[in-house]
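quick one before i forget lol
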Amino acid sequence: MSDSDVLDHDFGRIIQKARLKKGLTQEQLAKQLNEKVTLIKKFENGTLKPNETLAKKLGRILAINLYINLNEDDDNN
C-alpha cells in the first residue's frame, strides 16, 4: 500500500459480497477478526470505515483489496 492508496468508496458492498462468496456469516467473520459482529454490520452498511489494520485483515480473510490507487489513471496517460 502506498500513500496514494485510499479506501474504496464501495468498501461495505465489497466486504459483504466477498463474505457471502466465502459462505461466511457476519458472526463467523467477526470471530475470525476477533471483533464484535456489530463492527462487521457497520462496515457492510458503510457507517464505519475499517482502519488500515482491519482492512488488511479483511483482505487476507476474504481475499480482497479494499484500497484503490489514486495514481493508476496517471500511470495510464
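fyi The chain has one domain: 5-70.
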